[in-house]
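input
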Amino acid sequence: MKKTFTPYVLKLIVISVLLFSCGANKKVTETEFISLFNGKNLEGWVGNKESYRVENGIIVVDPNRSDNGGNLYTFNEYSDFIFRFEFQLTAGGNNGLGIHAPLEGDAAYLGKEIQILDNTSLKYAELKPYQYHGSVYGIIPAKRGFLKPVGKWNTEEVIVQGSKIKVILNGTTIVDSDFLEASKNGTMDGKNHPGLQRNRGHIAFLGHGDIVRFRNISIKDLSFKQLK
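output
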């Protein structure tokens, strides 16, 4: 028996075919965000797991345990990415976010370090512009005044694509620059930063002797080169 279709049904068929065709040709350009912290333990991280511990779904840096806090690195390396996390500072708290970092050496120079710092503390009254929270240490100064009061949770997003970097703190962009362009005539701190030439490495929390807390850590890998 020959089938016949009403104009309405024919229209639905045409729309379905078009949608399928578009979907089949659509290229995936980004991976989804994946959690880097399961809230229970430090699985997926390497480095100082004595100073960094998990309490009530939060990563706590305890500098009294060993090595002044030390560094905690992602197991995987990343090139281009969007990294999101929340952090809580204690009074005068100091940490850092390493990007493109090797597992050894000073990530601020052999990779890049983004400051995580309570720069409202009196002990930091004479900071250089590149040392305030959110700054790319020694290279790019961040806008100031967007940290929440000590003890409150802050949200931060770091976007790295090639040599371009953007830091968004509590919804405000405090860095939007190119670290190679910013350093082409020399670095702000006048020091050698070979890590500026690195375009791949670990992401790390860099302890500097203070208690700092982290939670809700996730990443979107924009390079499609995530190591397993």
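quick obs: The chain has one domain: 32-221.
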